[in-house]
Amino acid sequence: MLATEVKTLLETKDTGWTFSVQGEGRNFQIEAVSDDFEAMSRVKRQQAVYRLIADEIAEGTLHAITITALTPSEKDQRQGLGI
Questions:
Q1: Three-state DSSP class for 28?
Q2: pTM attached to this predicted model
Q3: CATH number, domain containing residue 37
Q4: Which of 44, 49, 68 shows the shortest CA–CA distance to 9?
Q5: Residue 66 · residue 28 · CB < 8 Å
Q6: How many CA atoms does the CB half-sphere of 49 hold within 13 Å?
Q7: CB 25 within 8 A of CB 1
Q8: What angle do CA 2, 18, 56 make, to 5 degrees?
Q9: Domain count, the chain
């Protein structure tokens, strides 16, 4: 699977979140950005993104996934730090 395919898969879930995906094969790094994450803990944010791809993980299409879920302000702070 390609990173573009994973991004498209996530975007079809109609969450309104913004995604950035890197990786290849079955191993990907997913960054999700949304105001919805404001009231969530880091774990709850990751679980919310994970639920979007749970079927693909169960099927083995996706395997090693790293999820970073940020609010827009957290994303801006990271960019300001060069992360």
A1: strand
A2: 0.88
A3: 3.30.300.90
A4: 49
A5: yes
A6: 28
A7: yes
A8: 40
A9: 1
pLDDT in tens, 18-66: 999 999 888 999 999 999 999 999 999 999 999 999 999 999 989 899 9
Amino acid identity, residue 47? Answer: Q
> How many CB atoms are closer than 10 A to CB 4?
9
The tokens for 14 are: 């109609």
pLDDT of amino acid 77 = 87
Match 């880091």 to its residue by tokens.
42
In the sheet where 27-33 sits, what is the strand order? 18-24, 27-33, 64-70
Instruction: Name the one residue in this structure whose structure tokens are 């879930």.
Output: 13
| Domain extent for 29 | 3-81
